[in-house]
Amino acid sequence: MVLVMVPGLGFLYSGLARRKSALSLIWACMFSASVITFQWYFWGYSLAFSQYATNGFIGDLQKFGLMKTLGAPSPGSPLIPDLLYAFYQMQFCSVTAAIVVGAVAERGRLIPMMVFIFCWATIVYCPVACWVWNINGWAFKWGVLDYAGGGPVEIVSGMSALAYSMILGRRQEKMMLNFRPHNVSLITLGTVLLWFGWLGFNGGSAFGANLRATVACWNSNLTAMFAAFTWVLLDWRLARKWSMVGWCSGCISGLVAATPASGFIPPWASVILGIVTGVVCNFATKIKFWIKIDDALDVFAEHGVAGMVGLLFNGLFGAGYIIGLDGVNTGLFPGGWIKHNWKQLYIQFAYIVACTAYAFVVSALLAFIINKIPGLHLRASEEAELLGMDDDQLGEFAYDYVEVRRDYLAWTPAKNDPIGTEHAIPQGDRHGISQHSQMLEGKAPSEGSEYGHAHTGIAGDRHAMAMGSEREKA
């Protein structure tokens, strides 16, 4: 179930982007899963969950290449073998990496991002996962409540994406005018896949078919639906229209907030969590304009901020009897503020600050260093951004590319334009449509060109249909 979240994120990001960069985001999400599978097998699991290291910050390499990882009880639960737990946690890391790759949207090169993902998983994700989920981690010993990854999954992904976007730079301003998602159906499909996978993400973190897993699933749905409801109402007050994108955004932010909290708080608190998350994350989408960082897909607002809200709710509404429903962790936690455990909120807040600062600073430094390595510059060229990441990075497209002509004409100066042609793209046949020089002059593919009827495809078919229609009229 968890693994379906990776293509779900790909479809979500693809729908949110322009059509000319749609496939590149699906590719980035899927290929990042390949990178993480190798990293987790190679040393990621050992760095995050090896019980032999006692420094409280990061594990050692005792389980390098899954050595000593077979049928022994896992760090997460004595009911689950170590090898199965390693596979489950690999999917968590894969999902987190797929969230982060949204930072490359519409202007980032893919291979440097994959290099970043491998290094990021090693020095950012694995340490934070060790803090809170390894029995020797400092946050685990301190009593931090993080059920399914508010810190290592949500805050880390949100802050890392924000840091990468900062180093990558903003998209061209003129290309951002009148920007809107190109395919709301894909956004909805991606959201539904994420919703389905999240039930395995949160419900499965109880490590058994028990009442705590059931409560976690209920809490996840309640938080998601009330957050979606709240987000849609907030969007309606501005546009006086109902927004499907708003529903999807609210649903995702609610699922994110439920990630750290669904296994700790009662269902009635999840309703409050959903409403608060919908309000906070909706307004958090404005932060990127204040700080002038082009977080194109709102990863920071919907993951980083929502993860913080969920962690704080653990400090307020955490209940010991919810934890004990798994039959293993009975009587270990006195509860949050509502149970007069006043210090829990401070512990949660300190953990949030630590995760936020560490993820942002280290991710920014890592992206900055990779950007300075010859051949690994993060940003695609201005011409490539105009053409689209699908063509520049992949050479394949999510849709028939006849629409490229519209974008060329909209954003490329005319041939004799006094403004100049500094943004022009070299001439050449672009996938059977027409030469760039003809596009600049507004000619159809067949006007004075050897490319006219020699090529097949939609452009030529439309021309032939138009000619046939004229003959019929005559």
Short description:
The chain is built from 19 helices and no strands. It is an all-alpha fold and 474 residues long.
Q: Please, could you describe this protein's structure?
A:
With about 475 residues, this protein is mainly α. The chain has a single domain (about 1-395), classed as Ammonium transporter AmtB like domains (Ammonium transporter fold, Orthogonal Bundle). About 60% of the residues lie in helices and about 0% in strands. The protein has helices spanning about 5-15, 20-50, 80-100, 110-135, 140, 150-170, 185-205, 210-240, 245-260, 265-285, 285-290, 300-315, 320-325, 345-370, 380-385, 390-395, 405-410, 435-440, 460-474. The longest helix has 30 residues, at about 345-370. One of its GO terms (molecular function) is ammonium channel activity. It is a multi-pass membrane protein. Its main location: membrane.
Q: Biggest sheet, open or closed, and with what strands and sense?
A: none
- Annotated CATH homologous superfamily: Ammonium transporter AmtB like domains
Number of self-contained structural domains: 1
Number of strands: 0
What's the SSE blueprint?
Blueprint (H helix, E strand, L loop, with lengths): L4 H12 L5 H28 L32 H19 L9 H24 L4 H5 L7 H19 L15 H20 L7 H29 L4 H18 L5 H18 L2 H5 L7 H19 L2 H4 L19 H30 L9 H6 L1 H6 L9 H8 L24 H5 L17 H16 L1
Protein name: Ammonium transporter
GO molecular function: ammonium channel activity
InterPro entries: Ammonium/urea_transptr, Ammonium_transpt, Ammonium_transpt_CS, NH4_transpt_AmtB-like_dom
